[in-house]
Amino acid sequence: MDLIFRQARLSDDGPLMDVAIENGRFAAIAPKVAASAAPGQEIDAAGRVLIPGLIESHLHLEKAFVKDRKPNRSGTLMEAIAVTAALKPTFTREDIEERSRRVLKLLVAHGSTHVRAHAEFDPSQGFTGFDTVLDLKREYRDVIDIQVVAFPQEGILKTPGTDKMMAQAMRKGADVVGGIPYNDRDAREHIDWVFKLAREFDKDLDFHQDFKDDADAMSIEILARRTIAEGYQGRVSVGHLTALGAVDVPRRDEIIALLRDAGISVMCLPATDLHLGGRKDAYNVRRTLTPVRALRDGGVNVCLATNNIRNAFTPYGNGDLLQIGMLALPACHLGGADDQATVLPMLTTHAAKALRLANYGLETGKDADCVLLDTRRVADAIIDLPNRDVVVKRGRIVARSTSKTEFAF
Ligand SMILES: [Zn+2]
Hints:
Elements: E1 3-8, E2 17-22, E3 25-30, E4 42-44, E5 49-52, E6 54-59, H1 77-87, H2 93-109, E7 112-120, H3 128-139, E8 145-151, H4 162-172, E9 176-179, H5 187-201, E10 204-209, H6 220-229, E11 236-240, H7 249-262, E12 265-268, H8 270-276, H9 292-297, E13 302-304, H10 321-331, H11 344-347, H12 349-354, E14 370-373, E15 388-393, E16 396-400
Parallel strand pairs: 1-4, 6-7, 7-8, 8-9, 9-10, 10-11, 11-12, 12-13
Antiparallel strand pairs: 1-2, 2-3, 5-14, 14-15, 15-16
């Protein structure tokens, strides 16, 4: 075998397991695997928890780490967009590359083995950021899988020239067609347009969707009905969807049933949405998050993701998905006894489903992407915020770290 974890904790109610890896895949998972690996390639997990790789299902690489260049003083979405639009034309390729590499390193250090990156372009900034992300996808292919979304942040119909750029982005090699109906001339027209492009290239879709504190002007129902009409069930994701949190319960539940029937995955982005949302509330400030519990209970595939790191939209963050999970516990009322266990899958298997990863999971024959955590119970994987001791991408150790406290008492 190329690599073996001895006596790892995969579940809290089963025995400890040996996990053997060969040719980038999990080759054997059993209480005792007789095979051996080369010296240094057998890791004594000694009861520590092994989980499949974390999946960052919604992230912007090219605008990370710019919060000090032009601060967002009001903390509103409007100022975040304005500040970032002013900065974007100043980004050089070297600059984007350096900041994106910092993000990718943080992701890997914290156990992410996949990331879906929304890479944007528009006529004013051209393809500089987008092309850089595509190049990094190739360069990092053995370290972290990057799915690239062609993302028209400034709208398509209201920003002439972006339509041609969208098609060009797909030809350049984008994996997913992006959309942002709330930032365009007409949401329905926008949705029609991106569906046509997705059909032409036979690609999945991922929308920035209904990012608002209030429920007016939502287009999620249009999107869900269109998804079903196109036979695109299971191929569409939406990020934010905060407006759904402002809808009364009967209508909300109707929309949730529609989302379930359309097989639309929802990415909750709490680090951003809590920061930008509710800014007009002087008291009783709203949480302005998509209703994660109701979506989960309604059978919708729900994920948690980072969105932005240290910019005008989210002026903090370190690429640690377990911290995002921890943030969601109180913010989404997921801290209860039965709820906590439903959170880790939002960072792993649910995200894999949204990204349609066929070879994902801690099972024989699947890609050997996994993380050894410095904790003894799977149930504590989030609340311990454990050290990521070993991170493995397709059978190869890509990061190792230790955190040991020396007590003076
Ligand atoms: Zn985003």
